[in-house]
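Q: Predict the assembly, please.
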Amino acid sequence: MPFFFLKYFVNCVGLTLIIYINLVAAASPKKQTWDGNRTTPVHLIPLKDDFDQPIIPTELNPLPFSSRYTCAPCHDYEVIHKGLHFNSASSLQIGRPGEPWVWVDEKTGTCLPLSYWKWEGMWNPEEIGLSSWDFTLLFGRHLAGGGVSEPDDKDITPESRWNVSGKVEINCLGCHNAWNTQSLSEWTKQILRQNFRWAATAASGLGEVKGMASRLAGTWDIFDGPNPDDTEWAVVPSVHYDRSLFDSKHRAFLNLAYKPEDSRCLACHSVAAVGVEKFSFDEDVHSAAGLKCVSCHRNDISHAMVRGYEGEAKDNPILSGDDFTCSGCHLGNEKAKGEKALAGRLGAPYPQHKGFPAVHFKRLACTVCHSGPWPRKEMSRVRTSRANRLGIYGIARWSTDLPAILEPVYIRDRAGRLFPHRLMWPAFWAERKDKTVLPLKPERVLDAAGDILSPEKGVVNILRALTLELEGDQTAVLVLRGRVYDVNVDAGLNASPYSREAPAQEPLWAIKQNDKIVPLIPKFDPASEEIDPDAAAQIQKILGALAGSEGAQGKPVLLYKEALYQVVESYLEKSKNPDETAAVPRLAWLVGEKVQPLVSEFQLRTIAQITGLEQTLTEEQVEIVLKALVEADKKPESGKTADFVYISGGKMFQLGKDGKLEAKDHEAAKPVAWPMAHEVRPTRQSLGINGCSDCHKVRSAFLFRKAEGTGPLQTTQVKVLSANSFMRLDKSYQMLFGLSFAVRPLFKWVLFVTIIVIGSIVLLVFMLGLGRLSGLIEKRK
Amino acid sequence: MVFRLITIVSVLGLLGRLTYLRFLRKIVTSGSTPDKPLFLAYFSWLGRRVSELFRPSTWPPLQPVFKNWLNLYPLPWIRWVASGLVLSFSYLAASGFAFAVFTSRGIFGLPLLFHFIAGGIFAVCLTVVLFFRAREHAFLSKKNGPPEFPVDALSQVVSGLPLLSILFWLFVISGLFLVATALLSMLPYFSFKTQMGLVETHRYSALVALLTVIVFLDTIFAPKDR
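A: Predicted assembly structure:
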């Protein structure tokens, strides 16, 4: 009997184990094993759509291809979905700070650094009310798909339009497409048209996509198909596949690269100094040596990419990240697993570092001396793909000057080692509660501010209306304070210098023809009963144009001395000027009985102050908008008013007790920095190549140059930080230490002489002793 | 870490041995027998002596040492040089070993700057003192007398050696290494590994110099029976 029970027990346990193992195996992702062949298989494969149905390119209205279903038979989409480029909103492995997404809104002067990872100084998009939909619309241009742009159904917010646009699946071809047809510009265009589902197909060049999901009703669904009633405006997105890429079995040839080309990475990760010409840009020495980005930044199917910073293995133990740090290849540091790695991986030369005191290697990262631009008196200003919207080309100008990103600034990591960083000064409007601030969305600021933040709007409307009435080669311009303003393609104003004598009265509305600028109002005598017919016709034309201009504030009139001219029933009528006498012809609005200037003095002042600059705000505007925000937020029932501030250039601007603008320091105004590693310079351009004085001297750029706060606000009240303060080094000591290098050559000579003397005496005594021992020298008596 | 351990063990070991010898000498000269085990008696004696260090009245007489020093350096300028050697070495040893033993990073900041300056003074003073005193110690002729209290074989051997001259040359040679390693590590000719070797050599030379000075001080401050 006992034997029977034992057998029964063993069987039960065994059966349970088998079931458990099978269940676990079924739940585990498919583990792909490499067969050892180093070629990339030809990807002649059937494309699948969102519904896992094969795409027949010859069919009417085929759907765009879905990477989830097209790649799925061989590659585990869910595993890839957890990779570095797709997991920012879900990953718990924070790691070393990286570049933030910067929400740039020039009109409101917003440059807000955002990140789903909890990195210092960066705001979580959810914290400020940005849904995944908003985030995708804002930054989808440089997103790799997946992650936040492919939210779960439970994360979809009511105001979003995912049902119309589709989700942005991982854009596998964005990185792995080996054809040069892969286009970031096309991707961006499709994202902004809310053609999320179609973006990958269009960007890869597999097909041409027409239509705009953004114009479709929110109730439209992919099952609804094309709208036969509207072929002009709300056109449903559709794909026309390039049939030459398909074979007779409707399989598409995808030219894929296992290791993406650098150009694919650089589409989103380019960094270049402002003002540097493309031809003179020096690439990273590793690229010049033939390495690809992915030679170091590797990943397996999990797409958990090696970022390559020291200590990465601690943050992410699965990666053998420490093998691919600078020291991992050049010095052959011990691997995270403890075994000794050989130096010289991928041909990395072994650094001699002759003459460098060892302390440098303990306290400085390799990149301090080897990466980024050589430290000069001023910080280098750079633009990055993601922050400044680079790499998107079209008729409109896509790239932005702001945020102003500076490099390199040297900051210590958690272990106290210096690393070169890029830095930006945040700028945003915020509501202050006690000591903390919460950024406001630009929409809220615009709602409260009205036209205060669009001072050029009135001038642009007038110039546009006037230009329509002029000859083809003529443009209406405004002459103001030594500059000529005309309308640009972005409906803003361009400013150019006005070289002629200043007009008798400003603003002067004028006509620009070729390089000549002539007054808009022709010369005439206002005292005469009848004015010159040509002049009258011109005036009538101008007043007519103004009357039809967008945002006209009243009836347009011309004031000249004692006369007022206006168009009444298609005739130019003269009446008495109710306003003060105008010495020169002056255009104005007649509102009821009152005469108002065509453009307010505030607008003219603001235009003159900021047009042509990268700054978009004046202190006066900030003061008015802060008051407007308080006014808009007033809650009469509670009697409480919220407190609003504006942050720019390292300072927080607030309304003082007297209602005037005042600037203060605040934690939220501090610069945001993230480590940089590229471009790595050649050895002969590394810091220290000229000796210690590359860094250690009294006026050392490395130690003492200034990082001056920059931002959209034109102000002199900015934060200025010295490089040594970022390094947590005492300025006076460093100056003293730098000074010591001035006397070092003498010091070395003194030591050299003492060594010679001491050494000679010691040698002499030794020789004497030897002589005595050998009997060559007799002992003195 | 290794250097820290070696420093602590060697300095404490040397101080222990020297004080233990003094303790034995005191027992023999007083003719008393300790009423407790020898080691316990030693520690209780050591405790008393350490506490006496804080009472100037119990300090060993400095006058004879000072007189002897004046005789050794009759010229005023060379006295300044000798003082410079003593003071600079004191600072160098204090600053260097304090950072090496008690901190996880090497010497830095203002102490480092002063370490540089003191190093220069030390090199120059050592050269001058050596120049004038080398002759006296050149042939290792002045031997110690026979040990008053033959404690062990080592003390027997030491007593038969010209201890002061050996200490002199040990200090000079370690000083030479100290200056040479300081200079070489400032020259742009040596790789990182060599630099590390130079740093280690600098540290161990400093340790040898320090131990030499400790023995020297024990020698010149003649034991006083209490």
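The helical segments of chain B are 2-30, 38-52, 63-72, 76-102, 109-137, 153-159, 163-184, 192-220. The longest helix of chain B spans residues 2-30.
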